[in-house]
């Protein structure tokens, strides 16, 4: 498979199903942001974190490819079988959040991003995830977006926040609490 096709040189690209759209199309923006998120999650996986955390993040990266394929498909014309997101994928995130929260101290302050590189990448990923979710919601107003995609992205941003706290806890670092000036 050739990496360059030259078919996008004029500012258009194809969705799965063949529809040509401008590269600024909201659907392209949506799956491009999911791809960006996946890359940041790869950066978290490359950090000094537990093997279990790396394995969960790899599964999340796989689900993000599933989401990307769904978002890259023309909902009206795609005849190709696209992998599905399942309710169990969302439940996995919820179970991971619950497991980490059993260990973590109660959250009594807002947390400022930072602490070490892995924690910072979690917070960056959380922000990119929230952006992907916002774009998916916007796209869903005019075009089909599986509701599980939006729910998964919402839960994933929560997971990334709790993962940042868990890494902080595992490394015995103080949480970067926000104390507002009043």
Write up what this structure looks like:
With 182 residues, the chain is mainly α. It has five helices and two strands. It has a two-stranded antiparallel sheet with strand order 1-2. Strand 1 and strand 2 form a beta hairpin. Helix 1 runs antiparallel to helix 2, helix 1 packs antiparallel against helix 4 and helix 3 packs parallel to helix 5. The chain is elongated and about 50 Å long. The mean pLDDT is 91.
Essential attributes:
two-stranded antiparallel ribbon; mainly alpha; 182 residues; 58% helix
User: What order do the SSEs take from the amino end to the carboxyl end, as H and E?
Assistant: EEHHHHH
Instruction: Please provide the count of β strands.
Output: 2
**Overall residue-averaged pLDDT value:** 91
Judging from the principal axes of the Cα atoms, what is the shape? elongated
Spatial separation of the terminal alpha carbons: 60 Å
Helical amount among residues, as a percent range? 55-70%
**Uncertain ranges:** none
- Our estimate of the beta-strand percent is under 5%
Rg: 18 Å
Strand arrangement, largest sheet?
A: 1-2
